[in-house]
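Lay summary

Proteins are chains of building blocks that fold into shapes. Our project writes down both the chain and a compact code for its shape. Here are two examples, one after the other.
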Amino acid sequence: MAKGHRSQIKRERNANKDTRPSAKLSYARCSVTKACFVLDAIRGKDVETALGILEYNPRYASEIIGKLLKSAIANAENNNGMNRENLYVAECYADKGPTMKRIQPRAQGRAYRIEKRQCHITVVLDER
């Protein structure tokens, strides 16, 4: 086959696919900055410690990320056959999503823009 043939390109792309268990939440109603405060606290920790941190963290994003982490753990156990005791948070990051623009009426006929930001949160686990 030719070097740039479609099937060869697909084969190479699938060979480089990351096989680690993960979970992704798209369009979370939370800004990237606020989500990153929580994600920085659990990065590199084992899953039981990370769940404990998220349980007692007062931030709104910790509730969302806690559900996402539980989903990633379930994916690791059911799809990859991994043991829960050996899992840790290898990667976790938040990417910027679309911003909803809203208008707030102000004095003297002015209008202020309110930006309701969204983000895409990804949690990747791995075994020690």
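And here is the second example, written the same way.
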Amino acid sequence: MKNFLYSVSLFLCWLLLASVPANAALTLRTITVLADDAFYTNFSQLLQKHVAGGQVNYRSLQKDKAALQQLVQQTSNYNLKNTSAAERKAFYINAYNVLVLQQVLSNYPLKSVMDVPGFFDKQKFNVAGERLTLNEIEKQKLIAPYKDARLHFALVCAAKSCPPLLNKAYTPAQVEAQLEAQTKETLQDPTFIKVQANGKKVLVSEIFKWYEQDFKQEASSVSAYINKYRSNPLPPGYKLGYYIYSWNLNDSVRQ
């Protein structure tokens, strides 16, 4: 009888010990998921406070340095293991935009991000467990895997000639619809696509020159790509040209 009770006791102890790591792992994963979900909510709240008309009020954003730094930390700690393609896409778009804002604020007041050496290609950040530059986030984590030219209208480089910064986070559930809406809005904006009837010309952002092949993967020409997202297509026969890209800071407050 003693041997039987001893065996039962050992078995029950084994069951108890075996259940603890599983429960602990489940709890840890639940906490991680909740923290990752909060990333999108927190970023949306910050953007809604400091972004209007696609421009950033960096002066007011300075008062929210702690909130921005928390987002930078969430970007670093984000767990991408077993996530969907949509979640990874949304995360890296937001990570790029968060880190641009953080780097601008670190150098503010600032006339242009081009005044900061290595802004895009040298400064590395902790991003979901990796050390990446802004260029590496854009090219390696977004453009290469997704081959989606709409991303060029979501990644905002803090310049006046950049596409407008959306005043809410891109989310895993809505990222495709958000990219579609953002692209349509940008490509119908007369300050971004300048149709000049007098000279029968269309002046477009140099983004279309720098990333021409990305757009031509989805359409026969740059003009054809633009027309996919316009309710009023570009007039046939108009010559396509490029206006000079302004790298002045996308600051809604004049310095």
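What can we say about the second shape? The two ends are 87 Å apart (CA to CA).
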